[in-house]
Amino acid sequence: MASIFRSSSAAAAAVLRRQLPVARQLPIGANRLVLASRARVPCAAVRSYSAHADESYDEFNARFEKEFDEAYDSFEVQRVLTNCFSYDHVPSPAVIVKALTAARRVNDFATAVRVFEAIKLKVPAKHHYEAYLEELAGIREKLGVPLKEELFPESK
């Protein structure tokens, strides 16, 4: 048995010795196939990342209000929130109300508090955030959702 392994390893060593000088001729890190296939391929395809490309702001808000109404557990509420805040614009207060009620409906207090953190990070200026807080003060009080600043005053 030992002779079989020796002969196969000797054959493998011979193959390596034959290939080694060829490999030394190429630049370090180069692959012969990559160097041979330097032909340019035109790219005419454009990837569409969203099926909602021509959606207006009102349609956007209506879609997310509906999704928050249909969210049935904490994971779904968080998934819809992630999708909602991944766009370039800030959701309307009506969408935020639906998000808060969905978070409280599935008994996810932390997500309800973090909705306001997301708004704070998403709005372009501090006075916009304060306008959202003023607009949503009633629903916050009704649902018992404090702000992170109220929970942890030292972390402002």
From TrEMBL:
Entries under Pfam families matching the protein: COX5A (PF02284)
Topology of the protein relative to the lipid bilayer: Peripheral membrane protein
Cross-referenced InterPro entries: Cyt_c_oxidase_su5A/6 (IPR003204), Cyt_c_oxidase_su5A/6_sf (IPR036545)
Subcellular location: Mitochondrion inner membrane
Pathway noted in the entry: Energy metabolism; oxidative phosphorylation
Keywords noted in UniProt: Heme, Iron, Membrane, Metal-binding, Mitochondrion, Mitochondrion inner membrane, Transit peptide
Subunit structure and binding partners: Component of the cytochrome c oxidase (complex IV, CIV), a multisubunit enzyme composed of a catalytic core of 3 subunits and several supernumerary subunits.
Family of this protein: Belongs to the cytochrome c oxidase subunit 5A family.
Physiological role: Component of the cytochrome c oxidase, the last enzyme in the mitochondrial electron transport chain which drives oxidative phosphorylation. The respiratory chain contains 3 multisubunit complexes succinate dehydrogenase (complex II, CII), ubiquinol-cytochrome c oxidoreductase (cytochrome b-c1 complex, complex III, CIII) and cytochrome c oxidase (complex IV, CIV), that cooperate to transfer electrons derived from NADH and succinate to molecular oxygen, creating an electrochemical gradient over the inner membrane that drives transmembrane transport and the ATP synthase.
Annotated protein name in UniProt: Cytochrome c oxidase subunit 6, mitochondrial
Native source organism of the sequence: Myxozyma melibiosi
